[in-house]
Amino acid sequence: MGRRNIRVRDTNRIPELLRNLEPKGKMKVGVLDGDRQMIAAVHEFGCRIAVTERMRNYLAAKGLYLKKDTQFINIPERSFLRAGWDENEAEIVQKVEELVNRAIENGDSINDIMNAVGLLAKGRLQTYARDLRSPANHPFTTEEKGSSNPLVDTGEMIGSMDYEVES
Length: 167
Prior knowledge:
- The chain is mostly helical.
- The chain contains 7 helices and 4 strands.
- The chain has helices spanning 14-21, 34-45, 53-62, 82-106, 110-131, 139-145, 156-159, and strands at 26-31, 47-50, 72-75, 161-166.
- α4 (82-106) runs antiparallel to α5 (110-131).
- The protein is rod-shaped.
């Protein structure tokens, strides 16, 4: 059998693919708006609020009478960012792997991947926050809000959750 010389010509696209997938920044997901960050932090980590005379009078006017020896109001931790991420991390990581593979095949950029992952993470964290039921609101809070959902009042905090890709 004779020998044949076969010559394959192709453009090496690996360096271009690596450049497209090179990290060019970072992504934040959560409550990014400054005004709502404080409220989100109170829910995420809990808070102990010192009772002032003004607060005591305000609550009494609303129908909640604190005991004389009550010095603090405790808002329990209702982690929705950390716990929401933990619950959804496997799905988000799987999506990253799918998108990276697709990027290698199609030449998608890292920004395309980060935007897709940001949208997914934002949606999963919002759903987790809406579905969170424990610890429950104090009965007074439930009556004031008209809802027993601990993290939903006006919907502004959860609605303000977003993602941001920084270059």
